[in-house]
Structures are given as structure tokens and as C-alpha cells.
Recover the amino acids of this structure.
């Protein structure tokens, strides 16, 4: 799911004209070494915090059917996660960085949810909303200064971006539907088991009276005890 959110953000920023103007959109950690190797105007969208929104955790399981309407699997409900990004702009001059950051900010604040056309993989299959919260005051996670300190770089103007996305639940295959009936066969007392075969009709015996031999179609037994034939007593010979 995380890489699918990355792809959705990349497509969103590409539509704003960044890639057309030669600006790269990357998801690398903006460390000191990375900044030294950078050679082109770049917008860096760095994921640094992932947390589950436990308030949206569901219960139960959904059912998955095939084209013929048969139940083939059961799927647990999706779980929601907050992905927090640090968005920065990199150029040769601070003025160019601010221009890029302003363009990114304009695009992100105008988008509350990622458009469905930008979603791929499991996010597209689920058909659920992937929400965006840009530069919000309620963003959880480490402060920007702590992130820069951990990266070993100097503090830089940045945007906080939180994406709330669903993670598809686990799918467990169901047993196939029953298509064959139960066939009951028994051998007589003293009968040699080696002589028992499916073609030997004399070796097929039911536990109920007044019921014909089921043959190859099988026998499921009477369902209503009030109308069921009496069962043979222990030791009684079948006529």
C-alpha cells in the first residue's frame, strides 16, 4: 500500500507541471550526502512516520464471490494508516526552492483526497478514499527539527503532509462447495474385505429399513426423524 501512495503522490505532483518543467520528484531521505549529489531541481517527498488509526479499525469479514456466484474467500476489513511525509524543494538558489515549494503547496492544499484516476493496485481495487492533510496543525509524529537532526542535515523549509490510506485486509480461501453426495457402504460379518468392491451391489448396505440401495448417486439419509425408518437393533439381521 505504501508504494501505491507514493505513486499516487508522484502522479499528482506531475500533473501540476513539475516534471514538464524538468523538476524531479523523488522519495529519498534528504540526508547531507544525498543533498551533495543532487544536480537538478528536485522535490523530495520523504516518508518518515507510519501509524495506524485504531479508531477506524473494523471487525467481521467480507465475502468474496466468483463470476458464478460461489463463495470463494473471506476478507477481513481494511485497516487505516496515517503516512506522514516531509516535503522539501531543492535548487541552486533559495528563491527557486521557495517557488517550487509554493507550487507544491498550491497543488496539495487544493486536493483533499487523491483522485481515483491516480490510484493503483490495492488502493484502486478497494475503491476507498485516500485523504490528504497538508501543513495541518494536528499532524502527529516527530517534529521537523527532530527529523532533520536524525538525517544529519541542516533545518530547511518544508511541508508536512499526512496521507490516510487503507491497507487491504487478509484474504482466506473458503472450502469449495459440496457437489457430491455421501455414499454409505458396509461389509457383512465375516466377509473378506479384499472381496469388497464398488461394483459389488451386495456389499452395499444401508442403516435404514425400507430404503433402496443408493447406487452410484449416494445416500444422504432421512432428514426428519418422525418419518425416518426405524433403525436396526444391534445384532438384528437385515432381511
Amino acid at each position: 500500500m505504501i508504494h501505491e501512495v507514493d505513486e499516487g503522490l508522484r502522479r499528482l505532483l506531475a500533473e501540476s507541471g513539475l516534471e514538464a518543467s524538468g523538476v524531479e520528484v523523488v522519495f529519498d531521505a534528504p540526508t547531507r550526502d544525498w543533498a551533495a549529489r543532487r544536480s537538478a531541481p528536485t522535490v523530495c517527498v520523504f516518508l518518515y512516520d507510519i501509524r495506524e488509526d485504531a479508531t477506524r479499525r473494523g471487525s467481521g469479514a467480507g465475502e468474496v464471490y466468483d463470476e458464478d456466484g460461489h463463495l470463494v474467500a473471506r476478507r477481513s476489513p481494511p485497516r487505516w494508516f496515517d503516512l506522514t511525509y516531509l516535503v522539501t524543494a531543492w535548487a541552486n538558489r533559495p528563491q527557486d526552492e521557495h517557488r517550487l515549494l509554493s507550487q507544491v503547496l498550491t497543488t496539495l492544499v487544493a486536493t483533499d483526497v487523491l483522485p481515483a484516476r491516480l490510484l493503483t493496485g490495492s488502493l484502486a481495487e478497494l475503491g476507498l478514499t485516500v485523504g490528504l492533510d497538508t501543513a495541518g496543525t494536528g499532524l502527529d509524529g516527530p517534529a521537523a527539527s527532530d527529523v532533520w537532526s536524525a538525517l544529519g542535515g541542516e533545518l530547511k523549509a518544508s511541508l508536512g503532509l499526512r496521507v490516510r490510506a487503507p491497507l487491504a485486509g487478509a484474504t482466506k480461501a473458503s472450502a469449495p462447495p459440496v457437489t457430491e453426495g455421501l455414499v454409505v457402504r458396509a461389509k457383512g460379518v465375516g466377509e473378506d474385505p479384499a472381496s469388497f468392491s464398488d461394483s459389488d451391489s451386495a456389499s452395499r448396505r444401508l442403516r435404514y429399513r425400507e430404503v433402496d440401495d443408493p447406487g452410484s448417486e449416494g445416500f444422504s439419509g432421512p432428514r426428519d426423524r418422525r418419518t425416518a425408518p426405524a433403525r436396526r437393533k444391534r445384532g438384528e439381521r437385515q432381511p
